[in-house]
Amino acid sequence: MIIVTGAAGFIGSGLISRLNQDGFKSIIAVDDFSKTEKTGNLEGKTILQKVERTDLATWLDEHYRDVEFIFHIGARTDTTEFDKHIFDELNVNYSKMIWEKCVAYQLPLVYASSAATYGLGEHGYDDDESAIGGLKPLNPYGDSKNEFDKWALQQEKKPFFWAGLKFFNVYGPNEYHKGRMASVIFHAYNQINATGKMKLFRSHHPDYRDGEQMRDFIYVKDLIDVCIFLMHHRKNPGIYNLGSGQARTFKDLVTSTFEAMGKQPDISYIDTPADIRDKYQYFTEANMAKLRSIGYENPFTSLEDGIRDYVQQYLATHTYL
User: Fold this and answer.
1) Which residues lie below 8 Å from residue 197, measured CB to CB, with a gap of 6+?
2) Which among 291, 282, 295, 278 is positioned nearest to 247, based on CA atoms?
3) Rounded to a whole number, what is the distance in angstroms from the first to the last CA of the chain?
């Protein structure tokens, strides 16, 4: 059995789809299944059992002998939420519980960290574990992810294999439920569909022109490929960046979305809201050398190809991965 937490969410459900495709059918799906807006993500997938998030600790105590691997993808990911207690409960303490069960029962673990741990990027974007203690995230979500990374590195007892993956800007199918927290591509598609136009944040930084703020965008299918690689690899534990390794502009992203929709680009600019302006990242780019060094050789999908696939195969037909 393979456990996937956050199973009904964006990345977790896509991971289950890939596991099914690879012949893994004994999936234990863990989530808060009361949130019905995510139910479409699991339709058509082969799952052995659904386990409520709050029941996982007890379930593991009873069934650990049958578990082969744990993907801990579930988290509270809302970067606009500022109640630290929510993140302490769902992102830090829950992750500690899973880690301790993996230690006790010798279960291999891959868990989701985040590029939000890097803050404004003043220390760069290298997944050097010795530098993690000095990172300064910009919000409680990033703090919670960094806090768990630091805690994991400090533990004397670790799972025999574990990897924390710092997800950069992930986009792709199955994010229909995410609302404001969905990718810019998702919002661009819907805005262009409705108005034929797209508005982007104006630059308030002298080194960047409007629309040329840059992010490392990674297609969810590439992210899932890395997860599958690590499940089979089970060597070289540690914390790894997971982006494409190439920063691209928001203007590139929106232009590619227009093109994938067969429309002429019509982009205008609005001021970045004052309440987030001082915490706005103008550049992120994952250094992917560490993952490459352990033998991961697959190329990452270009932004243009990823957007074309996402728009034409999924968004245009409201299809799930």
Assistant:
1) 191, 266, 267, 268
2) 282
3) 21
In a domain, 211, yes or no: no
In a domain, 274, yes or no: no
Q: What is the mean pLDDT of residues 168-188?
A: 95
Is the Cβ–Cβ distance between 291 and 204 less than 8 Å? no
Token output for 71: 């993907």
Binding residues are: 10-11, 31-32, 38, 53, 73-77, 145, 169-170, 178, 180, 187, 201-204, 215, 280
pLDDT computed for residue 277 by the predictor: 83
Q: What is the CATH number of the domain that holds 48?
A: 3.40.50.720
Is 192 a domain residue? no
* Nearest of 30, 143, 160 to residue 85 by alpha carbon: 143
Q: Which of 244, 245, 226, 246 is nearest to 236 (CA)?
A: 226
184-195 and 250-260 helices, crossing angle to 10°: 50
> Which residues does the annotation place in the binding site for NADP(+)?
10-11, 31-32, 38, 53, 73-77, 145, 170, 178
Residue 249 has pLDDT above 70, yes or no: yes
Per the structure, the count of domains in the chain is: 1
Burial code (b: 16+ CB inside 10 Å, e: under 16) for 158-189 equals ebebbbbbbbbbbbbbbbbbbeeebbbbbbbb
- The annotation places the binding site for substrate at 169, 180, 187, 201-204, 215, 280
Domain assignment of residue 186, yes or no:
no
pLDDT of 79: 67
22-40 residue pLDDT tens:
999 999 999 999 877 888 9
CA–CA dist 147, 128 (Å, integer): 15
Cα–Cα dist 218/243, whole Å: 5
Full residue range of the structural domain in which residue 289 is found: 2-171+217-245+282-300
Cβ atoms of 127 and 70 closer than 8 Å? no
Q: What positions carry a catalytic annotation?
A: 141, 178
